[in-house]
Amino acid sequence: MSVEFIAPSNSPEKPPENLSLESTLKELAVFNFQVEASSLAKEVARFFQAQPLLPGVILTVNGEFLGMISRRRFMERMSRPYGVDTFAGRPIMALYQIAQTDILILPGVALIVVAAQRAMQRQPELLYEPIVVQLEPQVYRLLDVHQVLVALSQIHQQATGYIRELYYNLSVTQSELEAANSQLKAANSELYRLANLDGLTQVANRHCFNEYLEKKWRELGEAAAEISLILCDVDFFKKYNDTYGHQAGDACLQQVAQAILESVNYSTGEVSGETLVARYGGEEFAVILPRTSPEIAVWIAEKIRVWIKELEIEHVNSEACSLVTLSLGVASTVPLPGTSQKNLIAAADRALYQAKDGGRDRVILDFRF
Predict the structure, then answer these.
(1) Cα dist. 145→191, 251, 309 in Å?
(2) For 26-55, how does the pLDDT look when each residue is reduced to its tens digit (9 = 90+)?
(3) CATH class assigned to 4-145
């Protein structure tokens, strides 16, 4: 297996300065991570683990471009039940044939603003797929779409300054300036929303979950207030996909996500507006409950469990019930100095697996935090 990784000249987390409306994709950091389609999936997995910023992998056949698999789709397939057993020892081509989807390929000379527009016009489930940048014939690189959005935000800021300059130099009316600023704020707000939303289920994504939990951990630690976490897993979801197909599986996850969101909002009354529902990965969801005791968190988790069951989504091959059900793990604590939110996640994860081992379709609270 031959794998080449070249670190980009610019940090993926910080775009170059002085971007303008004329800036192109060549000015952004790109990744060169290519493997032959005959390479084993487990070798690719090792590179993803070693390089956490890699957005995906380019596949080649005898050095010729074949396609691309994003990090998100690769990890999602490998994390499914029996995913490692199915794909790890096989050529990555086997996984690609199942997970492949439409790829956005743009030339390196494409304007950043145009690239962002093309990326946002994709289907919701493709919003976070990296862009393939063709720098020259047969030279392809990967670009994280999040970096494009950050660069576009910087361009918007530059445009704001340009509008202000026009205001002073060309006597632009105050109302016109305010209208332009309002449009820019709306665009930036939409970019932020898309960057923190799961494309399939339309709830918060894992990136948003991690940032929000870290933020609340610090805040509640200073206030000596409780925080609770619920982890939810759709019972026997692989069997659901095998029985009804992946399109039905995606529709099921969409229904489950919205039902969890509605149940949490109903149970909490949205008094504080602090709760967060996120897709944690695959068929797993998470609910962050700031300033919530373990007793209330368990009560909310039970409401979620019942709410999902009342959807009456048929699941004839489930070993828990003839309907789609959830197993839920709950953990709660007061953040203390020197502790980490990872401990809270681990406790909720232990409770989730206890719920699974206990027969599924139930709520378990972990007392060992």
Answers:
(1) 11, 25, 37
(2) 888 888 888 999 999 998 888 888 888 888
(3) alpha beta
